[in-house]
Amino acid sequence: MGALGKLFIIFAVLVIFVGYRLNNLLQPSPPPKLEEKWWGRGDPAGEDKSIRTFKVHVADEVLKDLKYRLSHARPFTPPLEGIQQQYGMNTNLLKEIVDFWTTKYNWREREKLFNQYPQYLTSIQGLDIHYIHVKPKGTNLKVVPLLMLHGWPGSVREFFDVIPLLTTPQTDKNFVFEVIVAAIPGYGFSQPAVRPGLSPAHAAMIFKNLMKRLGFDRFYIQGGDFGAIILQNLAVLYPEVVLGFHSNMCTVYTPLSYLKTMVGAVWPTLFTKAEHVERVYPLWESFVHRLRETGYLHLQATKPDTLGVALNDSPVGLAAYILEKFTTGTNISHQSREDGGLKQYYDYADLLDNVMLYWITGSMPTAVRLYSETFNKNFMSLGTGRMPVQVPSACARFRNDFYTSDGLLKEIFPNLLHLSDHEGGHFAAFQVPDVFSRDVFVAIEKFENFNSNLGAKA
After folding, report:
1. Which of 2, 58, 106, 214 has the fewest C-beta atoms lying within 10 Å of its C-beta?
2. pLDDT in tens, 192-210
3. Which of 105, 131, 345, 371 is catalytic?
4. Is 225 a catalytic residue?
5. 371 catalytically annotated
6. pTM assigned to the model
7. Which residues contact 299 (CB under 8 A, 6 or more apart)?
8. Among 120, 128, 202, 225, which one carries the catalytic annotation?
9. Annotated catalytic, 133?
């Protein structure tokens, strides 16, 4: 090894040492204790704590209004020559989708799909929370509870194809799931907060209390996108109730992780697998990509209500805004395709189901507020995103989604029992339900064994 190589190693060691020191200095400990706040209207003393059955039913007037708006939308501005999805949703593709929505999509038939699973509402801290609750039938296997959360711009619709897979016994597993798929406050049929401050940490408390309401003192959790963020907070703040955490969006944002990533720019395989280097480096390309694809985040984090007015008034605009994310989120390279790659992985009807959840509930304005409640001083100062998740954890990385290198994951997930890599994108449960469900089974089998051994030693 030459002098330059030795110098770099010394530099890298010093940088990492400084990073560890910074982590220790900046990491709050222990986790904060949150006040149990009332987020709804009315008097907390009069809260109805009953569990009410729920069916999706949209009034004819709402559907007539939607049809009118779709058929009276202003003409689309043609895309630039040679441009597919690089400027956002291509209006040629959007026209095809809107035509399908207007002439072939039958909400009354789709409504039956939404009502295929038992659904409920219950008031938690002043807000009606909507959830799907499916139990396995006719099995002698151990039944374990699993709370699943979606993100933005998704919904409970993402999980329709994985619910039967998770609640059906597998020939090589000695357990099966009882699945609770919940809607985040302000999304779909879950009520929004009437006052500011409902951050991912406060949402975590709501879902902890929801599971307690359902009779679960301890349970497994699974989430992607904002679902992953909320449930990571749940695992940090209330580890005593979490048996294990499966995430398909494991992220690490600590001083040490930043320094490791910078050192990796010179020595890429120091913290990243050789076959994954192109997912992280060159750093400049990764930075430009992130900057280009997160304009929505800055807008939603700063001016959600202004944006919400536009999206809540135009179903065409709403579809364009949501489905553009399904194009880039499924595979960023699909920006160069006329069809956005949507038909390769989804049916238009399934995608429009998700759009309809936002439209019929008018929930896009309240959904995007979650960004402003996350990217602010009050939530960030809690430091929960920098705290280690001490419960058994699993990270499922999908090729076209957010990526965190192996050498960074243990900073936040010291009990990482399962790490997997799959083909797929950001909406994994929606796009590849078989792969997704299998990964959940494999991970939680490891959690079950870990918890069993832990119990035997206690």
Report:
1. 2
2. 999 999 999 999 999 999 9
3. 371
4. yes
5. yes
6. 0.93
7. 307
8. 225
9. no
